[in-house]
Amino acid sequence: GESVGLHLPTLSVQEGDNSIINCAYSNSASDYFIWYKQESGKGPQFIIDIRSNMDKRQGQRVTVLLNKTVKHLSLQIAATQPGDSAVYFCADGISGGYNKLIFGAGTRLAVHP
Amino acid sequence: NAGVMQNPRHLVRRRGQEARLRCSPMKGHSHVYWYRQLPEEGLKFMVYLQKENIIDESGMPKERFSAEFPKEGPSILRIQQVVRGDSAAYFCASSPGRDRGIYGYTFGSGTRLTVV
Asked: Which of A41, A51, A98, B114 has its CA 20 to 30 A from that of B9?
């Protein structure tokens, strides 16, 4: 069945370092991907998205890379800050009116001073 | 412009009781989605509703769970005869409309259900 999975359940980084969180997906029909940040006790917060006609998209301190050949995407956070500590989820969906997102299990990012 | 509002934030129920979770979508959003999150896991889709219509309930358990989104008022996720395995965080999301569906998702802060 469809699945979106994460390579690393926990990632510990030093403040100021760059962080890379990876995600694999299995549905070759997926053409839209979103990264969410979830802080403790809160709902998922949109970070950045990417459509399958792109292989890279940049935001403020974040970059998402999409490799459709191996069905893999990654989230890069530059100059990681303590406020970046959270659980990060990738999610995939199919555009064109389809409304359901498939979430991965998540990666916990711990930023140490 | 308030976001997606969910209440209560925390709900404790004894086994066998009913749980009612409410979700008011963002202003201008007519589509509501419910997701369930077990501890240390990702969110799992349950149901997608528009006003007075259930569009996709493929993620809803066959028994005890129901959802509605009436013409007036919030969307309700109802769990009858709760069991310990229902303990989870339940998140609601809303979006502006079908053509924008997943592009316009906004999540609420969730309701944390604990069954004792």
From this structure: A98
B5 pLDDT higher than 70: yes
With 50 as the cut, is the pLDDT of residue A108 above it? yes
Q: Which of B48, B50, B116 is nearest to B86 (CA)?
A: B116
User: Which distant-in-sequence residues (6+ apart) come within 8 Å of A58 by Cβ?
Assistant: none
A81-95 confidence digits (pLDDT tens) = 999 999 999 998 876
Burial of B64 (0-12, 13-18, 19+ CB in 10 A): middle
Terminal CA-CA length for chain A: 41
Residues of A engaging B, defined by a Cβ cutoff of 8 Å = 4, 32, 34, 36, 41-46, 49, 89, 91, 93, 95, 97-106
Minimum-distance CB partner of B33 among A46, A89, A99:
A99
